[in-house]
Design brief:
This protein has about 150 residues and is mainly alpha-helical. It has two domains: about 70 residues, Orthogonal Bundle (Multidrug-efflux Transporter Regulator, Chain: A, Domain 2), CATH 1.10.1660.10; about 55 residues. Helix content is about 70%, strand content about 5%. The protein contains seven helices and three strands. It is elongated and about 75 Å long. The N and C termini lie far apart (about 60 Å).
């Protein structure tokens, strides 16, 4: 089946302008065009576009995604390079997840903190609370926040 920019963008959940931009930036060398010059997407393009979106979500720069696309176009001689790229991305995503988990832990602590303060009508009780009096799941966060 063939798709317009708008149709493919809708399938991907992105703006049509993003696909046009990817094409302009050289990320879509596989893209075909109609006789009138309009971009035509095929079912087989969907997976590649999903991978581009995945790499983008990891924070990968467009120039590096373009390099990956060029590796793809070169064929099997670049398998090892592509594997190394994804191994590196995996480590970066694991780091991002760990950073986000730390952020979520802090937010959870602060939610508990202010819910508890709201119930007691003051934060003074919590400010003077000893670390061992806190719920166990929040002790490490408070230690980190106070550099204890």
């Amino acid at each position: 089946m063939l798709y317009t920019v708008g149709e493919m963008a809708k399938l991907l959940g992105i703006a049509p302008s993003a696909l046009r931009y990817y094409d302009k930036e050289g990320l879509l060398p596989f893209l075909e065009r109609s006789e009138g010059g309009k971009r035509i997407f095929k079912d087989s393009d969907y997976e590649g576009l999903q991978v581009i979106e995945c790499l983008k979500k990891t924070g990968m720069q467009l120039k590096d995604i373009r390099d990956f696309i060029h590796m793809l176009m070169q064929g099997d001689d670049t398998i090892d390079d592509r594997l190394q790229l994804f191994l590196k991305r995996r480590e970066e995503v694991k780091r991002q997840i760990a950073d986000l988990q730390d952020t979520l832990d802090t937010i959870d602590f602060k939610c508990w903190y202010y819910e508890t303060a709201k119930q007691s009508g003051t934060t003074a009780l919590l400010e003077n609370m000893k670390i061992e009096e806190l719920p166990e799941q929040y002790q490490a966060v408070r230690k980190k926040l106070r550099r204890e």
